[in-house]
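Notes on consecutive records. When two proteins share a document, each keeps its own sequence and its own token line. Never mix them. Below: protein one.
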Amino acid sequence: MIIDVQPAAGGIITKEQLGQIFDKAWRNEYKGITLYGYTSKEKHWSYVDASDEYGPFEKLQVAVNPKIVYNDPSPDYNPERLEGYFAAVKEKLKSLPYKVEAAESAGNAVTKAKQIAELTHEFDKDAIIVLAADKPMSGRLVWDALICTGLKWGDGDLFHWENNRHNYGDDQLFSVWTTTDPGYFLPENIEQMGPGNLVFGFSIPRNADPENVYEAMFNAVKYCQKRLGGQILNRDGKSFDMAKEQATLTEMVKKLKDKGIVPGSDNALINF
């Protein structure tokens, strides 16, 4: 749900003003709010909270994320919840010369929220391949094997195959972690660490090229198996069947596209 906020003619809204109006206590109460500001100088919208580079703003949009508003085990999708957010924004701005309008009705926003929830339930899935050890692996050998596949240790203390297409898809094409405590890899502890498995995976809808990346990921798993031993398993801990897993992935990618969501696209990154 988008709420448009327009100052009086020639008016501006500074980041400092917005911080005072939509203070921390208020935003803790009304979770799921994101502020966007527009400047004619930059000619684009930007996150108000992201940087001090932009502003003051000539227009403001308050985005309400229905996935957070209706974050219940069994959400009722009552439009009154979103209407409450709209009323709260108007209340915050009532003493100021700002025009406040909802870009769409709460009912339409709720319909979209249901559609998003259904998409999330069906498609927010990870492609997973597990290399399960017969006995604890040598931490040093694990580190060396992963580096030799071309992966880089980095974000979250995991190993990643970085996505060099920075304008498309997730930052990583796939990542590697372990279910052995602590779940990640630290250089200073690698000598003492004996992972019981290596988990290779990526988010299917966020990936720039799921099918080809999956094949490359499988090749990385096979290389590590040659170096470290162990068994290749699927996400359920069962014997791995590449043809079956590929067919399942291809079917999911097709269904995503049929829903108008191309993996790795802006639409996919926003929704997943």
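Protein two starts on the next line and is unrelated to protein one.
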Amino acid sequence: MKHFLGCFCVRGIVAVLLLWSGPAAAQAFLENYAPAMPKIEMIPQKEFEASSVLYQDIPSGDKALSYKFRLPKDWEKPADSANSTYQVSDKVLGEIVRLYGPPLVDTRSYFSLMAINLDYALTAQQWLLQYLLSSGFTIQGIKEHNENRAEVLYVKVENGATFVIRTVAQINGKRIVLAQYVMPAENWDSEQKLQAQAMGTFELTHEVDEDPEEMESYVLFDIARFKYPKSWEFKLQPLKSVDRMGFELLNVISTFSLQNRTAKTLDGRIQVDVVSYDAIESVGSEIDQLKANLSKIGLVSGEKIETRTNFKFMPDVLHSDVEVFDGTDDKSNFLKYEYWLVSVEMGDYYYFVHMITLSRDEDYFSWARNTEAYKLILRHLEPLGEGTMMK
């Protein structure tokens, strides 16, 4: 069942159409699908290093995939396990290298290193959850080390056999690399320590500083440069005065005809309002007006959910904390939204960057994609000297 709010029409009627793709309460979602990792006693580090071999390489000369990890000395690396012409795909996880443990009857464990290009910005944990749940795997535990690194333990059934897999996912620029230790379930008691210890040694050794997806650039006169994900649609607001300017970014799902008008189905909207010092009474009054304006698209802003203080900005940007409010459809209490808002001060202007997204309680993965795009936009907001308006 799909619910939507308002429409976005060709005659400049500004509204937003948000698609609801199903409930996934965030806290309940994480509690149900992302339990904490089980505690496993590790092998003493010196003992493990003495009985293991260090593997390290730069696959196909691609520094973004440079890796190192340790495995026991009796593990085997087949001659054809490393592909010298390996290319990272946009759609399929490609294997970089595989090593095998000693055979036990008719089964054996193996270690695999795979990579794929990111479609859009997500944290490592969000990507892992999306990948594993869409594949139908049963998650036993997950740990977020940081936004770019997460670890998970899950169960996979393949051709009637059950495997316990421990995976470390690490984002490096546009890539996400998965190191996996795949173990037959019957080896769990004897091999769980080794599995945990080996996965703890995996790391990418060359950090790449690049955005996870292609970015577009927009320069507003001579005052500021913005960058935004290319997958979002840019819409410039009509310019009536240099005291008040702005644009919208739309996470468009589809475009269709509705009563002789073109309408868009959206998963989220980010709006940037640029207001000169002379045109503003106070930051607080401007924020109150922005929240009140939500009624024009059928939303009501509610209580503050949280304050976010960990966003990154350019050095010369003065900013408030990011405030997050709950929101509801004024015609339906069943749909929940979130309204994100931050005020930024640069030169002679205030910048209000605000976002409407389906709430984490409605669609966790749409919320995750929208909030990560919001982070990227704020990180790239840059004051300028003289320049011209261009896109």
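For the record: The first strand starts at residue 52 and ends at 57.
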